[in-house]
Amino acid sequence: MTSPVFEHPALTSAAxxxxxxxxxxxxxxxxxxxxxxxxxxxxxxxISASASAVDAGALLVTSASTEFRSGVDHGESGGSAExxxxxxxxxxxxxxxxxxxxxxxxxxxVRIAAQLDELAISxxxxxxxxxxxxxxxxxxxxxxxxxxxxxxxxxxxxxxxxRTVSAKIALLSSLLAELEPLTAPAVQLS
Length: 190
Known about the structure:
Largest sheet: none
């Protein structure tokens, strides 16, 4: 059987270390501990790269805003300066709002990537420790021992892996409130 591949390398490593527990779980009908890890799979490096791209976009918008403001200052010195100035101030404000929103999005992306990375690494360490503590029972089940003690140990360990992953996922709920503002456009163009 090939080893499961995850986006996050710590989860791939944990899946390899959980392989025997997974096989033992399959033999006794316990929850699949590797399948539980799938719920935490993520690619913090991809999120960080996206955040960097958004940050670069924010810098471009800021630069465009600066150039626009320079043009506005020049344009306000002629003809219908008052009407032009009002329109220009509106557009300039939209540039500034878009730049701030992009910078905030980039910052949030970096924080999300870091938190996901931390959760994946800590979950991997915790579930590997659980599997390690159950090695003797896992070996016994794999050797066809179905005594209540070893079957219970494997079942309890698999359930503990699922609980560990669930607890890590629950920690992500705090990010939902931060993501909510990103569901609406930052700027409504006039």
